[in-house]
Design brief:
Layout lengths: L1 E4 L1 H7 L10 E7 L2 H18 L7 E5 L5 H9 L1 H4 L4 E5 L6 H9 L8 E6 L4 H8 L4 E5 L7 H11 L6 H10 L4 H14 L8 H11 L3 H9 L3 H8 L5 H18 L2 H8 L6 H9 L5 H19 L4 H14 L3
């Protein structure tokens, strides 16, 4: 069985994803890691409430740790070990082809425990699980662009925020319509306002104006080699999560910038977005060595941001001052 739905529909119909009357093999893919975390947390709570003692806990393993011997010991030969432990496998896309085939073809007897495979990326193994109806497959789908308000309302409910109509509208009109951007903004609101009556249109507007990062504007500056303007904007931010997203985006952006001929061939004279038009135009300003150097720099900064390294902010400021002193 393969169930596909938006997060709020799963919330309404299958809030815990797994069913008490149906143990066995489950596979899960979510369009966003935050949404995945919400449902995995509910799944774990559900297991604790419905099964006694150690059976009410998931043993968490990584896909890369799964071997045929491990599968035989924990499922096929479980009577020898005498337990009904349930397992949660993260990064299931890293399970090798040999083990994936073993799971699909062997009668491992999943029926008396939960075996949940969580995919960060949909691959051939995921496709085989869904098309051959192996166990229960759950796809938490990305909302369509006309469902942005539903997504925001859903995240507000999850994060226990009750925002007024004008504040919600302002977020929808000014914040990029992605789950991670909405979560970042709602997190900022929770952090900056202790009481609900403090969350007004003017206070939120001021907060977003101060903290908002326009990634496309920054990418445009860098593409046009306006590095000083780019760094001047970057040093205004000290939020490691925002910086990590920017540096991750910039690497993908530079990869596209490195092959303007491919973009031109791909889009030709047809309809081209403003973003891709600028990529094609700016690709002529860069050589491969410059792009490789910039990608290494952003890759290093992303690692520092991900690790919340306190030195990152100083490194960015030094980079800005270095460019400023060259004027």
């Amino acid at each position: 069985m393969h169930f596909k739905a938006r997060p709020w529909d799963f919330e309404k119909n299958h809030p815990h994803l797994i069913l008490s009357e149906k143990k066995g093999l489950y596979s899960l893919h979510s369009f966003d890691p935050f949404i995945e975390t919400i449902f995995l947390s509910r799944m774990k709570s559900f297991l604790r409430r419905t099964l006694p003692g150690e059976e009410g806990k998931f043993n968490v393993v990584l896909g890369s740790e799964i071997t045929c011997e491990w599968l035989e010991n924990n499922f096929k030969n479980r009577s020898l070990f005498g337990n009904n432990d349930s397992f949660l496998v993260l990064q299931a896309e890293t399970i090798s082809k040999k083990e994936a085939k073993f799971i699909l073809e062997e009668d491992l007897g999943f029926e008396d425990k939960y075996f949940v495979l969580v995919f960060s990326v949909m691959n051939d193994f995921w496709e085989n699980l869904t098309t051959h109806e192996q166990g229960v497959a759950l796809s938490i789908e990305i909302p369509r662009f006309w469902e942005n308000q539903k997504l925001l309302d859903y995240l507000m409910k999850v994060m226990k925020l009750n925002l007024s109509w004008d504040v919600r509208n302002h977020i929808l009109e000014t914040v990029p319509s992605t789950c991670s951007d909405y979560v970042t903004v709602l997190g900022m609101i929770k952090k900056n306002f202790l009481h609900e009556n403090e969350i007004t249109f003017d206070s939120v507007k001021s907060l977003l104006k101060t903290n908002r990062m326009d990634i496309f504007e920054l990418a445009s500056m860098f593409s046009r080699k306006k590095r000083l303007s780019f760094m001047k904007k970057v040093v205004e931010f000290e939020d490691h999560d925002l910086l990590r997203r920017l540096f991750s985006f910039m690497q993908g952006h530079l990869l596209k910038l490195s092959d303007g001929e491919y973009l031109l061939k791909k889009y030709g004279s047809g309809r081209v977005s403003g973003y891709n038009k600028e990529l094609i135009a700016c690709s002529k300003l860069w050589n491969k060595d410059e792009i490789a150097h910039a990608m290494r720099t952003f890759g290093h900064w992303e690692i520092l941001a991900k690790g919340r390294n306190k030195m990152l902010i100083n490194i960015l400021r030094k980079e800005y001052l270095s460019l400023y002193n060259k004027i």
